[in-house]
## 1
Amino acid sequence: MMGSALSVPLVDAGHEVRLVGTHLDREIIDALGDRGFHPTLRLELAPAIRPYQLEALGEAMLGADVIGVGVSSAGVRWAAERLAPWLASGVPVVMISKGLGWDGQEVTLLPDQFAQSSGTSVQPAAIAGPCIAGELGRRVETSVVLTGRDPRMLARVAALMATSYYHPVISTDVAGVQVCAALKNAYAMGVGFGAGLHERRGGLGGSVAQHNYEAAVFAQAMVETERLVLALGGERSTVLGLAGTGDLTVTCNGGRTSRFGKWLGMGLELGEAVRRMEGATLECLDILRVLGEAIPVLEGRGLVRKSELPLLVHLIEVALEGRSVKVPFDRFFGVA
Amino acid sequence: MMGSALSVPLVDAGHEVRLVGTHLDREIIDALGDRGFHPTLRLELAPAIRPYQLEALGEAMLGADVIGVGVSSAGVRWAAERLAPWLASGVPVVMISKGLGWDGQEVTLLPDQFAQSSGTSVQPAAIAGPCIAGELGRRVETSVVLTGRDPRMLARVAALMATSYYHPVISTDVAGVQVCAALKNAYAMGVGFGAGLHERRGGLGGSVAQHNYEAAVFAQAMVETERLVLALGGERSTVLGLAGTGDLTVTCNGGRTSRFGKWLGMGLELGEAVRRMEGATLECLDILRVLGEAIPVLEGRGLVRKSELPLLVHLIEVALEGRSVKVPFDRFFGVA
């Protein structure tokens, strides 16, 4: 979805885009080849976006200026292995995959996973910030963050991608951006509880709903995000900007994660809420699993304290252990 | 509205509340006296909330443990003069009024305006953070910030106010909290542009709308809020919490300010957008007027740079000078 959507500004910026599907995307690539229509984005794509099945990867790579990677976080190692033969030439790689890994000792960032799995020293840049695919495909204006460790490469790639409606800004705080990008899925689930509780109490949508509740959860989410960003080597300033407040805002307003949170807030049993998502990737569960394992280890090393993360601890209980929603407001903002 | 709504947790915390109307609130006080019904909150209030007309102020003050002030920012000086006779006894004052003043040289905080106008040394505490009155009156859970310069007084007042659904946390960063509380109205107007542009282009509500746009504006709003908080003597950490991200979130989701911004985003002429608000207080215009005068002076003193505040500068152009909405994304996040 996101890889295809990103093709729209790239074509508008004057590029040819070769869109290679994984084995999970065969039907989308077929539909694009037959009719130029993207079935999940529900959008006609420009002819300059050329679809390729996975078997034609080599053909698609010929003369590429930039390689984009849009697989889910679980597919990053797979993608790195597949792409390894084309990385030696120094062509920049840009990832739109988001998430964090856990190797039992350390939280790992996806660009590092990619570099390691590819067996090269290629460190991909990564994109984060507010960007719903369906809106980008329809040219809704936004700003995003392009992060990586080489500012010259970032500036070059940002200049290639920018259009009148797609504004990449650059940041060398890879850890901060990636931690924010991953955490927002967990926290958006928690903000979504409010809408569910409201419906459960018979409420209708409107300006008087559970917006106070949602906003207090949002603010606590940002405070906890800052704690985790600092614990994992990121910078404080990243949290206030696009990767932090911006991406959490859009995920609460437009994402499937907040819908999942709403169902939990309505009192649906965990398994039933997952079933209702009809197989959609639930990044919030992935990141909560990672953090559920990582936090005790990080706490043992003195990097974070569970007592500073009461919202996250509750989200883990709800989403992984099936507890009922009861957000611990009385422990928010350093109280108790 | 907000003063009346705050009576609900106070009564639930076991207090008697004496609700004194200004001369503008006669009908509300009458309706509460006759039927116990609050016409603008559209809510029946408990009998322990006792309504008083302004002439009975002296009677209402007898034996008060705390004095709350819920007038609009324009009424703070008036309220301070009226309440002066009862301030000598050292009874704590809590303000829910929000805004900033400008005396031609300095940005002034409402608690300081109150102290000065009362002719006493009483420095009121102030409440900020996510709190839509209609939701508080219906006991929707939230956390708020109680700010002031005396932490012992804050702790005492917070303990008096807390209930199972109303969670005051305390902060001694008066400038930071008050600047955030005032700015959120201006910036929520800007976030609201997105919904208006979406409707103008024929869009319907839903998960694919202009959420990317709104979220990028939100993030830039937080970055600019931090600049202004620091320039006006507040603390960075306040911006990420309830007074900053929390209050902006709720104001975007439930407030009249974002509705006003939506009309401007739809392309309505400024005067027409104001007319459609049917006389509702537009705090966003007040704060933009203050900042429109203050920023050149603050810039002259080297405290802020206009180039760091491109969103605010555009909001001033739109709301005070009648310019069309065209948010300068290309100058956001320190670019250019």
## 2
Amino acid sequence: MQCYKLTLAYDGTRYSGWQIQPNAPSIQQHLQEVLAMLLGEKQIAVIGSGRTDGGVHALNQVAHFKTARECDLNRLLLSLNALLPHDIRVKKLEMAPLRFHSQYSAIGKEYHYQLYLERVMDPFRRLYSWHVLRPLDLPLLKEAMPLFLGTHDFTSFANEPQKGSVSKNPVRTLRRLDFCAMEGGGRLEFEGDGFLYKMVRNIVGTLVEIAFHRLLIPQILSIFQARDRRLAGRAAPPQGLFLVKVDYPADHLLKESTPIPF
Amino acid sequence: MQCYKLTLAYDGTRYSGWQIQPNAPSIQQHLQEVLAMLLGEKQIAVIGSGRTDGGVHALNQVAHFKTARECDLNRLLLSLNALLPHDIRVKKLEMAPLRFHSQYSAIGKEYHYQLYLERVMDPFRRLYSWHVLRPLDLPLLKEAMPLFLGTHDFTSFANEPQKGSVSKNPVRTLRRLDFCAMEGGGRLEFEGDGFLYKMVRNIVGTLVEIAFHRLLIPQILSIFQARDRRLAGRAAPPQGLFLVKVDYPADHLLKESTPIPF
């Protein structure tokens, strides 16, 4: 038995999300089907570092699977990309120890959320950002950001996990939250040890409420304290969100697993 | 009667091109239908600066139309964008003199062509670049570029115009041709007084043949001289091509036409 680590990029537009669901296209299902076919196995379980919702994108999602079949890493990577839809790409395929688990071994994650603020939407960004049409008070948004940094109980910023999700400790540590200006808008960058369900989108929605002057900065503290999801802002729409990176301990791969040359 | 200049961005993926065709979705048709509806006219002819093929994109295509109906520029811009599909956006709406013609008044154009050269395609660029999988000799490609600069008979790099196209003088002046490195590949930037049908894609295809070592640099001169389309490289695929800018004389707009504030 051998464990393999997959690094994936996908455009979430056409999918109902990462996770397999009946009668809805998912990234996990495509990967499982193609891997089972290529490895000649009845079924291959592909476990992701976390679920992304419908419309959410990934630049470097991580997943793992186990198989006893022998694999040529290079050939398997090429075959996967030949058979997967063009909006799902396997960027890397590496060997990991059997104890590696894409979700439980993760020690950090990075998400970006893109805002588009011009009057007329750029048609090339329509599927990759939230078009906020009302003027935003950006200095106020930036002033509110540090209140989310550090270790907190994020219950007020987390939705109930979907059926089948493991119930979780609601305390998370947000290590970095930056606003980076981009042409036509900006990008909120989140780095932390982990994120609750819809936590990034709920924080973005709350920051935008503040920048609309519909919520005051001091209210954030009472929202945290209330541990009540209904008090925070509405979730920002999915298409602005990108899972950018999943971090693991430095020694999480098998030594024999070298990068594949061109 | 008043003439209006439209500046448009569109994602060409879903369209069979700019021009109206029976039983195929076109950008021109959407614009004509929405404008006729908004202006309460039976028909509005929207004339573009040039045709873009199916899959080709535009950052600033220019078109014009004429109407005797009174227009509030600001309201019409908002209404157009409210009714057009999200992959077609009107960026500007300005008043031009009646003599203005988006095609015949143009004095220059800029096109970009994006190449993606990494082994695994970036899923977010799949619809906006040509994925060239074989290694390219980029220094050789750059060495060949200056041979296309200046004034030439470009017959060997032009396809027969589509039915209904005006037959054209095949002499054009290419003022600028640069290669700009981008993450994962590069962009060829073309600026000239005008371009024949498929000229940019045919030059890109020829440059890539040179960078594959399948065509030699001195052959370019004989290809020019032969005035025979069959000798040059195959057209590069449409999805890498962007119409970036159409230039007009400085005084081509009416003075009353000021930019619309947010």
